[in-house]
């Protein structure tokens, strides 16, 4: 699948064997590679030698397509590939005519520079008709290309925002934290039988929902 409209000099189009990542995976994750993933393909490389743009934190951006045998959540597998490849990656996950895009901000492992540590992941929902919305803007620097893409696929911000990537990640983390707290309290309310005990929980729930709305 040629999802992104990129210069010919960025093209790699090389197959990556699934077992290349088995050293980083648990037995359950290895089985997911076998059962759910059909093919992994290195599609493009964005770097100074392919698009003549440099980066400070982002040295290269690899475009990797993963074709699935079934439309199933493989988010537990993607960090395995992220850790194994020390460069920033944009994943094109496809099943039939549907696509999901996924990437993550990461940094080098403090001890093993050949491994990476994932800080935060961004992803789209599954879609089939939004191809133009997510095209990469090959301008300014590799850092800017990656940052803009993260904003494009974030559900909680826009590319016109004045936030930088660090601020966006902090915002996403806070939203996730609030959603987890809301879910926990909603469960408590359902389990609580006494009205007088439900009242303070409902008050806390409403407060958290108000805080969440401020971030969305």
What's the short story on this structure?
The chain is of the alpha+beta class. It is 38% helix and 23% strand. Helix 5 (165-191) runs antiparallel to helix 6.
Blueprint of the fold:
Blueprint: E1 11-15, H1 27-36, E2 37-46, H2 48-51, E3 61-68, H3 78-84, E4 88-95, E5 98-108, E6 116-123, H4 142-153, H5 165-191, H6 195-215
Parallel strand pairs: 3-4
Antiparallel strand pairs: 1-2, 2-3, 4-5, 5-6
Helix pairs in contact: 5-6
Q: What is the rounded distance between the termini?
A: 33 Å
Order of helices and strands: EHEHEHEEEHHH
Helix fraction by DSSP (H/I, runs of at least 4): 25-40%
Beta-strand percent range: 15-25%
How are the strands of the largest sheet arranged?
1-2-3-4-5-6
Structural class: alpha+beta
Largest sheet: 6 strands, mixed
Number of strands: 6
The count of helical stretches stands at: 6
Give the integer mean of the pLDDT values.
87
Rg, please?
Answer: 20 Å
Shape: globular
Poorly predicted runs: none
């Amino acid at each position: 699948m040629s999802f992104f409209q990129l210069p010919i000099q960025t093209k790699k189009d090389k197959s990556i064997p699934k077992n290349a990542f088995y050293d980083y995976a648990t037995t359950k994750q290895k089985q997911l590679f076998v059962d759910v993933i059909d093919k992994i393909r290195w599609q493009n490389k964005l770097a100074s030698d392919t698009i003549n743009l440099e980066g400070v934190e982002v040295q290269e951006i690899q475009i990797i397509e993963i074709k699935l045998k079934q439309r199933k959540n493989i988010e537990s597998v993607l960090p395995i590939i992220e850790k194994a490849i020390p460069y920033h990656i944009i994943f094109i996950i496809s099943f039939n005519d549907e696509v999901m895009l996924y990437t993550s901000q990461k940094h080098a492992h403090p001890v093993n520079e050949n491994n990476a540590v994932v800080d935060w992941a961004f992803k789209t929902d599954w879609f089939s008709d939004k191809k133009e919305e997510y095209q990469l803007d090959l301008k300014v620097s590799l850092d800017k290309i990656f940052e803009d893409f993260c904003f494009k696929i974030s559900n909680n911000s826009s590319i016109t925002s004045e936030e930088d990537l660090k601020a966006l990640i902090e915002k996403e983390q806070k939203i996730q934290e609030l959603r987890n707290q809301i879910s926990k309290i909603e469960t408590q309310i359902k389990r609580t039988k006494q009205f007088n005990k439900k009242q303070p929980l409902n008050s806390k729930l409403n407060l958290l929902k108000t805080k969440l709305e401020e971030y969305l």
